[in-house]
Amino acid sequence: MDNNYISKALRVAAEQYNGQTRKGKDVPYIVHPVEVAMILQKNGMNDEIIAAGLLHDVLEDGNITEDELKEIFNKRIVELVKAASEELDDRDNQLWKKRKEHTIKYLKNEKDLEIKYLACADKLSNIKSMYMDYQHIGEKLWNRFNNKDQEINGRVYTREEKKEKQNWYYENLVDSLSDLQGNDIYEEFKYFVEKLFN
After folding, report:
1. Does residue 5 contact residue 15 with C-beta atoms inside 8 Å?
2. Can you say how many angstroms the Cα of residue 134 is from the centroid of all Cα atoms in its chain?
């Protein structure tokens, strides 16, 4: 065990997410990867997975490359971070549903349980945040989801349609991660998905 991985990952994450906030909120973005790491730690994951939890969005949302990550972290941590990143080409111009279908299929077919634990911790952090916000603002929550579909096809989705899209995505994630059934991290994720959408 090398706690140095975690402290290095926290430092890199803090640099990469500096100034960024969570979607539709004033909360610093770093809160999300820290929560993901805490979920992984609470569920007994090793230091490499916890470090990857801190870094899981840096390739998508930071200004660091895979090669730069390799100079700082070991091969396994970089593999985990890469696995947690959307890999479709031209990501900004890909339809939201197409990207999410790719994620769902990828996780369903993935045999590496550590990758599934990392994904589950990320999605659990997201759904808990959504659930807590829903308690405060109700159906207005869905207004913050302005996905790329409507920008590309020029269509404006209603609040109800946005909710349906999120429901579809999270229900499919529950199915894709079902290999983790019986583990606390998965059961908590499934619980919050059911609570938010039912």
Report:
1. no
2. 18
28: domain CATH number?
A: 1.10.3210.10
Work out how many domains the chain is built from and give that number: 2
Residues 137 and 149 in one domain: yes
In this predicted model, what pLDDT tens digit does every residue of 175-195 receive, in sequence order? 999 999 999 999 999 999 999
Residue-wise pLDDT for 18-60, tens only, equals 888 887 678 889 999 999 999 999 999 999 999 999 999 999 8
Domain membership of residue 70 as a residue range: 1-85
Please give the C-alpha separations between residue 158 and each of 56, 98, 113, 144, 146, in angstroms, as whole numbers: 31, 19, 37, 11, 10
- Note whether 120 and 177 are within 8 A (CB): yes
Burial status of residue 131 (CB atoms within 10 A of its CB: 0-12, 13-18, 19 or more) = middle
- Report pTM: 0.91
